[in-house]
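dumping this here so i dont lose it
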């Protein structure tokens, strides 16, 4: 991978290139396909765990999900062989606006089919655990629908089978910020600061960003918002971000499949479904209702003050739930 975002993708980045034309849901065809990916651990016949990453993460799970790729962790490299593929449209090595002129719209269905190609390249037939949080969960829904017998268990974290108007509204506000700035990185920073409100929610902000003294200006939360915005703007490409927002907004696992309920009824793999108590982006009750539509879905609620980002923070709770549910089957 030769772009300015290479430094953020991890030192063990691997590249798979398919030279076959790749048909997209939008009707366009990519002449070839590049998928960046990471692996951890030593592969055996029954120990493959596949992680689907969220919107602006990379394939380097050890970097963005601390407490997982470690001894006794969810992705313990001494026990499991873990694969994570970078989403199409992302700036971290896969086919994207950085690699293709006039890059077309990508769906999560397209991304799932890219996962299939990578799995074939790696000669992986059976996957013990397919896990994804947020937009990573969108990939899990799509791939599990396409191949329900490939996986022994699914883990769906803080995710839903269709993007809601509430999430699309956040995307619209972020696009407005980027467009108003002339598609600059300062606009991307403003978009990220806007998104943080939905990712964290009022409880997390009030707990962690409230000022102790009496102030008229220079509030603690001001610097936090600037920091979060600048952090993303320093590591992510604006056009890639806009493409990924469009991918998120268009997600509907029930499209052309008879609706969400019909699509979920076809996902017969046992699924551990986990919601975060303070999540306002993917509310727990909505996730509970969704889990009831899966033939073998088990709903669990984890407690966290960190809103939607709780699925990245509460690693111990998630690891224990996954371990317990995997052993019980």
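and the seq i came up w/
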């Amino acid at each position: 991978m030769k772009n300015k975002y290479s430094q953020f993708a991890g030192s063990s980045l691997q590249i798979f290139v398919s030279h076959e034309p790749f048909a997209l849901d939008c009707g366009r065809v990519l002449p070839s396909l590049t998928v960046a990916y990471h692996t951890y651990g030593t592969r055996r016949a029954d120990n493959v765990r596949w992680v689907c990453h969220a919107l602006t993460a990379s394939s380097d799970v050890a970097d963005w999900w601390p407490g997982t790729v470690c001894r006794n962790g969810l992705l313990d490299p001494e026990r499991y062989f873990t694969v994570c593929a970078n989403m199409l449209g992302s700036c971290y090595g896969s086919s994207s606006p950085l690699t293709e002129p006039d890059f077309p719209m990508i769906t999560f269905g397209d991304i799932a089919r890219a996962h299939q190609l990578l799995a074939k390249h790696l000669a992986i037939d059976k996957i013990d655990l397919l896990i994804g949080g947020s937009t990573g969960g969108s990939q899990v829904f799509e791939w599990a629908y396409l191949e329900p017998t490939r996986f022994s268990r699914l883990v769906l974290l803080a995710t839903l089978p269709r993007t809601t108007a509430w999430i699309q509204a956040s995307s619209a506000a972020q696009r407005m910020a980027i467009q108003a700035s002339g598609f600059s990185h300062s606009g991307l920073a403003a978009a990220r600061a806007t998104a943080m409100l939905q990712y964290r929610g009022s409880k997390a902000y009030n707990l962690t960003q409230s000022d102790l003294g009496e102030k008229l200006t220079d509030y603690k939360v001001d610097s936090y918002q600037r920091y979060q915005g600048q952090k993303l703007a320093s590591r992510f490409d604006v056009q890639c971000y806009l493409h990924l927002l469009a991918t998120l907004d268009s997600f509907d696992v029930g499209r052309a499949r008879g609706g969400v309920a019909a699509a979920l009824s076809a996902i017969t793999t046992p699924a551990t479904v986990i919601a975060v108590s303070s999540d306002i982006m993917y509310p727990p009750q909505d996730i509970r209702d969704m889990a009831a539509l899966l033939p073998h879905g088990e709903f669990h609620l984890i407690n966290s003050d960190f809103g939607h980002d709780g699925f990245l923070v509460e690693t111990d709770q998630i690891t224990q739930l996954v371990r317990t549910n995997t052993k019980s089957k």
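The two ends are 41 Å apart (CA to CA).
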